[in-house]
Amino acid sequence: MRKKTAVLTTIASVFIGLVIKPSNADSLGYDVKRTEKGMAYVSVGNRNANVRVLFIHGSPGSHTAYKHYLADPLLQEQAELISVDRLGYGQSSLNLVSSIEQQAAAIGELVDKEKANILVGHSLGGPIALALALQQPNLIDGLVLVAPAFDPQLEKPKWYNLIADSLLVNWALTHDWKTSNGEMMPLAQELTLLSGKDWSRLENIPITIIHGSEDTIADPGNSEFAMKRLNGERHQLIEVEKEGHFILWQNAPLIVQQIQQLLNQTR
């Protein structure tokens, strides 16, 4: 049953990739800004707060993936909220950047040295957030990772990635889905590089991983893999029954609650 659900989800995703245009980076009505490396982002909330929350979307996606979080009144009051268009998406530079390290470094320009910084990453945004924390461990004060991908063995190219990578299908995909598949093809190698780094540097950073037990896109085993590498007193895994990969939108209150807990610790 699980395999059947995964196949149906994949077929639906491929169909969407053929007919749906990329999300409009202006659709939320916020002013879009850019970093020196050409990454677009929006900034809302309390700019005078001593905490900055950086939201990192998955693959494909844009800053609009976090529209409900950006509009949350309590989050807006407690922190400055920034949601990015990762390199390759939205209004950022549209060249494919499959390197997790390079994606993290680009977002790292938005880490504020004068504030506490909390990272929230969904799907591929999870390992990118963790890579950023490894790059700047002294400036990151907490992570919330939602349905992340970490295990190289679980993230090898799937049959549908191979099909999408073929010339016959690839030409018909929208830019976002071409870019997404371009990220998926070398993902196992990228995660192998990430897993080889010294995660003990994150020992003192609070990290919460949230994963749905019925996730057929990023297997829950990804989070179990990460927890074995983290294994710190300030690290926790919340596995949610009957939730899938889209828990970011289907159970936003749970994720907001975890973000607020980190905010309360850093205020």
From TrEMBL:
Gene3D superfamilies: alpha/beta hydrolase. Residues 1-25 form the signal peptide. Residues 52-156 form the AB hydrolase-1 domain. InterPro entries: AB_hydrolase_1 (IPR000073), AB_hydrolase_fold (IPR029058), AB_hydrolase_sf (IPR050266). Keywords: Hydrolase, Signal. PANTHER family: HYDROLASE, PUTATIVE (AFU_ORTHOLOGUE AFUA_2G14860)-RELATED, MONOACYLGLYCEROL LIPASE. This is Alpha/beta hydrolase fold protein.
